[in-house]
Design brief:
Helix content is 21%, strand content 27%. The chain is built from ten helices and 22 strands.
């Protein structure tokens, strides 16, 4: 543990203090994408009390900042409208000029979370991403998608910089980009024809507590924040609280971004009811506070089916339920369902191969809610209400958009009576020749349940359903009981 934190002190040496020439944050460099038509923050280090002047290729305006006693400086420049025209920004502190080239103005999104967000196009060991070769073959056709991968580093104190660099997502290096993030960027790029930049700051296996700050964890949790104690408490370092946020996320907080994409939750399976919902909402509030850009969009992914040690258990869906509830309380947010994006043979695969659809569904959220493309169907179906009719249960849903994916052969439903024992149910679409709201519904029943009282849909750790709406987006797992 001591060696690990010693390496962080070396990284902290990037804050240079009395260096002869102005130094930029690694997040400010060649190939970067800046948020279009914004006051873009740029930062770095210079000799204490020296003046740093920034000039741009697209404007005659100058931006200035004076380095503090610690050498840190931050200034803003007004960015132009998005385009594929390469731009440049120069910085001068009087002792030398540094120029950043091949800068594009576009849309900048953060890719945060754990391994399913980190998972690159090339996949992990024994965890491939579907369609790898096709992505590489087509990468050069999609101009203006750039990314920067922040190394996953722990620190007991918030770091100001990270050893990283912006890259163009071309055939040579697209394989290293977050698959979920890249498919999001590709979809947005194609839809609104602007460059898209991805800031990838994530860590496989991390908990939501890994990203919450010291003040919050001290006041609201019982987490032991002594790094030497963490070694004894946790079998794996990716479970540590606080440290990953300090080392991996804090370096990006000066960036000017459009919004945040988040895919995390597997390591919080088993959390008490409501705890994850609250902590995720508080994490979003923390990040919005620290980015200082108001309630920027937050779009996140509900974790996919996984055996969690017992395919018939319900720890996984209970966490998915908490994620679903978080979307209700986090302003300017959206959640995507991945219930249908796991193959039957992936029951023990925590990194499902179908990442294209995950990224696309995040893009649908952004295109509809952030970029105003209201014709895009972005919401999955959700349970609305039920009605018991003898030995049957009639169900209504929100967000069907006028169609179900199927009328027959529906899988994933279970019903229970007063004994609370759930049995597989037959489900089908039905019309009833009668006036009123219940003349059309999904009706479920089981010969083993004569007096049903509750319905569940895909509420087991690994249970796959197939009901979707007109946009092909799946029904969220749900339960009508509170058992």
């Amino acid at each position: 543990m001591n060696k690990r934190f010693l390496s962080l002190m070396v990284l902290a040496g990037l804050t240079i203090g009395a260096q002869a020439k102005v130094k930029l944050s690694h997040l400010v460099g060649d190939n970067m994408i800046i948020q279009q038509q914004s006051d873009v923050r740029l930062w770095g280090w210079a000799k204490p009390k020296s003046k740093v002047v920034a000039t741009t290729s697209w404007s005659n305006e100058r931006s200035e900042a004076v380095a503090g006693k610690d050498g840190k400086w931050l200034l803003t420049v007004k960015s132009p409208k998005a385009s594929y025209t390469p731009l440049s920004i120069s910085f001068d502190d009087g002792d030398g000029k540094v120029t950043v080239n091949n800068v594009l103005a576009g849309e900048v999104w953060v890719c945060a979370g754990q391994s399913n967000m980190e998972m690159p196009i090339k996949g992990f060991g024994n965890c491939p991403v579907e369609g790898y070769n096709q992505v590489v073959l087509e990468a050069n056709k999609h101009k203006g998608i750039h990314y920067v991968k922040v190394p996953s580093i722990m620190s007991t104190k918030p770091l100001d910089d990270a050893n990283c660099e912006w890259k163009e997502a071309n055939a040579d290096n697209v394989s290293e980009a977050s698959a979920t993030g890249y498919f999001f960027a590709k979809t947005v790029n194609e839809a609104i024809d602007v460059p898209v930049g991805l800031i990838m700051a994530n860590k496989g296996g991390s908990r939501v507590e890994s990203w919450l700050d010291r003040d919050y964890l001290t006041k609201n949790t019982k987490e032991d924040l002594d790094s030497t104690h963490m070694v004894n408490k946790f079998k794996w370092d990716f479970l540590y609280p606080l440290l990953w946020g300090n080392g991996t996320f804090n370096p990006i907080l000066n960036s000017t971004v459009k919004g945040i994409l988040f895919y995390q939750g597997c390591s919080n399976v088993g959390d008490p009811d409501g705890q994850y919902t609250q902590r995720l909402a508080d994490l979003v509030a923390q990040w919005r506070r620290d980015f200082k850009q108001g309630d920027i969009p937050f779009y996140f992914v509900q974790i996919a089916p996984y055996h969690n040690g017992d395919i018939n258990g319900d720890a996984g869906p209970r966490l998915r339920e908490q994620q679903f509830n978080a979307a209700k309380v986090i302003p300017n947010s959206g959640i995507v369902c991945t219930e249908d994006l796991v193959y039957p043979y992936e029951v023990e695969q925590i990194h499902p191969a179908q990442k294209r659809q995950v990224g696309e569904r995040l893009a649908y959220q952004a295109l509809n809610k952030t970029y105003g493309m209201k014709s895009i169907i972005c919401e999955s179906m959700t349970f609305k209400e039920m009605k018991i009719d003898g030995d049957k249960v009639l169900l209504h849903f929100d967000n069907e958009y006028g169609a179900y994916s199927r009328f027959e052969g529906i899988e994933g439903f279970e019903i229970a009576g007063a004994d609370r024992v759930f049995h597989k149910a037959t489900a089908r679409h039905t019309w009833v020749d009668a006036p009123g709201p219940w003349n059309e519904a999904i009706v479920v029943s089981s010969p083993e349940v004569k007096e049903p009282v509750a319905v569940r849909y895909c509420f087991r750790n690994f249970q796959l359903g197939n009901l979707a709406n007109a946009g092909g987006l799946p029904l969220f797992p749900f339960r009508t009981d509170n058992w």
